[in-house]
Amino acid sequence: MNKRIYLCLAHMGGMEQNYVQEAFDTNWVVPLGPNVNGFEADLETFVGEGKKVVALSAGTAAVHLALLACGVGPGDEVLVQSFTFCASSHPVTYLGATPVFVDSEPDSWNMDPVLLEKAIQDRMAKTGRKPKVIMPVYLYGMPGRIDEIMAVGERYGIPVVEDAAEGFGSRFDGRVCGTFGRYGILSFNGNKMITTSGGGALICPDEAAKQEIMFYATQAREAYPYYQHEKIGYNYRMSNICAGIGRGQMHVLDAHIAHHRHVHALYRELLDGVDGITLLGNPSPRYDSNFWLCTIVLDDALKVKGEDKAYAAVVQGAVGGAAGVTHAVANPHTAHEPNNNVEALRMALDAAGIEARPLWKPMHLQPVYAAAPAYVNGVSEALFRTGLCLPSGPCVSDEDVRYIVAQIKQALA
Ligand SMILES: *Cc1c(COP(=O)(O)O)cnc(C)c1O
Fold first, then answer.
1. Which atom of ligand 1 is nearest to 139's Cα?
2. Do residues 20 and 160 make contact, with C-beta atoms less than 8 angstroms apart?
3. What does pTM read for this prediction?
4. I want to staple 141 with a disulfide (CB 3.0 to 4.6 A). Which of 29, 135, 292, 386 is the partner?
5. What architecture is domain 14-252?
């Protein structure tokens, strides 16, 4: 073993430096400029549907501004998919609102539309008010039942904000994810489908909505010869340097998506016939995942070598603690954790130079959200106990996938 294989690493196509160089040459080293405009135009062309796009400093900023634009404020409730990364729900709290978590359905692992409707009715009965926004997520790139979720939203007059941060380029019924709801979130963090080093974007319904988002993303400045503020704004615009990277990455977007799908197909072929391990695939031809991350679930009964050593010691540098900025912990256990066979397989792969990661821990199980209402059916909790993400990015070769699957087979007891 001479290199480490990561889940999803940034991969440059070659054109990025040209756009960045142009920004230097023309002295556009600010959070606006030709690369920002060009990147937004490229994104608008890609997503289609007549949508407008605003480039922002992060996907998390896009979530925050979408909620703000939907009128979310103190005391409001927002229905958020529980099975997600924290950036879907944290911005709800930035606005003084409360996330209400909705569990997933077992086919796509995304928001269950039936449970969503029950949650809306129960919230209205309990609080006398309608939740302000419905936020489904395309976890690991997999489309969800967005047609049914949109129908629920329309029935109750609640806008839908799609968190497509992991689902850039995925499609449902042939339509790009993130273009169904009023707003759609994209992320260009270093580990996403394409990167701007760090960044995100908000897909907006029209030019007026785009202008309003840009206003709030640029400190909410009124049109006077001096600084005049009548609203609270944010410093969330993307820099022209990052947008240059993004314009370069747009040249390799289709190739990245094709590569992720190819890696998934290879996992499917190689894991076929391995008892006790199930790879998530598109539930039907209506779903067209970008397979940002390929994910497996392990049967409870599957035996993996070294299960007795799972959780024996605290992990040094938390899983997913990219920059090492995590709190050290004293106890290796929490109230909810993946099964011992999952942790044993993660450790075996880690020792073989392969990064694997448990599925995201549902938000309704996170201590920070202990007081938030949740409508659950056990699906996300079971997935968290049994699932792992496997390396899937543009830097993962066929040879890597063969090596990873061979290591998985070798780890089975
Ligand atoms: C990455 C991610 C985000 C946020 O994007 P950043 O650009 O990292 O701020 C939001 N939601 C989900 C589901 C994500 O995976």
1. 13
2. no
3. 0.97
4. 292
5. 3-Layer(aba) Sandwich (3.40)
